[in-house]
Write a structure and sequence with these properties.
- The protein is mainly α and 153 residues long.
- Helix 3 packs antiparallel against helix 4.
- The protein is globular and about 50 Å long.
- The model has no long low-confidence stretch (mean pLDDT 86).
Length: 153
């Protein structure tokens, strides 16, 4: 982290009166996850919008194209900036685990989009936003459990 970012976190912890280092570390990780996920979501949203509005692909195809492009960015950025990836795991296994949970998130998104956009006839972008928020929580929890290295005892 840069010195300015370190200072910003220190200032925030003072204001919030957070002294526990474990809590501080988790809060920093959540902020990084939100930033990386926000960028991935922005990438996904732009691609989804372009496919849906200009290419006139179905909502599910638009989401699939957006998913593929954003998940590649998200894997790279999550491993580099957010999680302390277990160095004992082979890169192929880390990528496989990441993709498995990304696919579960993708299918959950597809299910939610189908329900909200196709069945309930909600606005496509509103349905996409709600599904994205739900899946973002799912993604953090699963990546924290499976991607992060386990503390040594």
């Amino acid at each position: 982290m840069s010195n300015k970012l370190d200072q910003a976190f220190e200032d925030a912890f003072k204001v919030l009166k957070v002294k526990d280092k474990k809590t501080q570390k988790l809060m920093i990780k959540i902020v990084k996850f939100v930033i990386v996920g926000g960028i991935a979501t922005l990438i996904s949203g732009i691609i989804f919008f372009l496919c849906d509005h200009f290419l006139k692909t179905s909502v599910l195809i638009s989401n699939t194209i957006a998913f593929i492009i954003s998940v590649i960015y998200n894997f790279w950025a999550s491993c580099k900036y957010v999680f302390e990836v277990d160095k004992n795991k082979k890169k192929a296994r880390i990528f496989t685990e990441f993709i498995v949970f990304a696919l579960l998130g993708y299918f959950l998104t597809e299910l939610l989009l189908w329900l909200m956009a196709d069945i309930l006839k909600w606005n496509h972008m509103l349905a996409w936003l709600i599904a994205t928020i739900i899946v973002m929580i799912f993604n953090f929890v699963t990546r924290q459990i499976f991607l992060e290295k386990k503390p040594t005892k």
